[in-house]
Amino acid sequence: MLSSLCSEFQVVPADIEETLTPGPLPQAVARLALDKAWTVAARLREGVILGADTVVVIGGDVLGKPENAESARAMLRRLRAREHEVLTGVAVVDGRSGHAETVSVVSRVRMTDYDDAAIDAYVATGEPLDKAGAYAIQGRGGALVAGLEGSFSNVVGLPLEETARLLVAFGVPVSAPPAR
User: Which of 7, 49, 107, 179 could anchor a disulfide with 150, C-beta 3.0 to 4.6 Å?
Assistant: First the structure.
């Protein structure tokens, strides 16, 4: 996704414990993105570092990535025929100056009333096993989605419009984000 905004970048995993801090979820997910960016900035000490994290929230509970196929099935059963929020925190850090900014983006997703056979077939693809909320709207999981309010790219995992604004503020040239 980032390649649609920037032609040159390097992926450097932060390798941190992905734990949300207590408090309002938009701030907590932005803080986690900032922790990721700071971890990489401390190693590189130069450049503009982007960190991001996405969570799914339903009924006040945060759904991260499923631990296994059975937890993916449980998440998908919980989401079935319901609306939930997808929150992504994005952080940008200047590795030299330490200047940092964050943003949180919230989208609402409505799921169809799919049956257990659809869940089993989807989980068997392996796609949901590394996705927050156990589905990928941009992949086969998109068939489980009835509607979306907000940013499609946010639900995929990186809100492109907001990310572009942050990068431009840090002097990074970007292409226009693709239309939603």
Answer: 107
CB proximity list for 23: less than 8 A, separation 6 or greater: none
Residue of 35, 53, 113, 116 with catalytic role? 53
Residue 16, token pair as written in the block = 């941190």
> Sign of the C-alpha dihedral, residues 22, 167, 169, 42?
positive
Tokens representing 59? Answer: 């009924």
Taking only the tens place, the pLDDT of each residue in 98-121 is 999 999 999 999 999 999 999 999
The CA distance from 107 to 148, in Å, is 7
Burial letters 38-77, b for 16+ CB under 10 A, else e: bbbbeeeeebbbbbbbbbbbbeeebbbbbeeeebbbbbbe
Known catalytic membership, residue 35: no
Which tens digit of pLDDT belongs to each residue from 47-78?
A: 999 999 999 999 999 998 999 999 999 999 99
pTM score > 0.85 for this model? yes
Q: Residue 168 is which amino acid?
A: V
Q: Identify the band that residue 150 occupies on the pLDDT scale cut at 50, 70 and 90.
A: very high
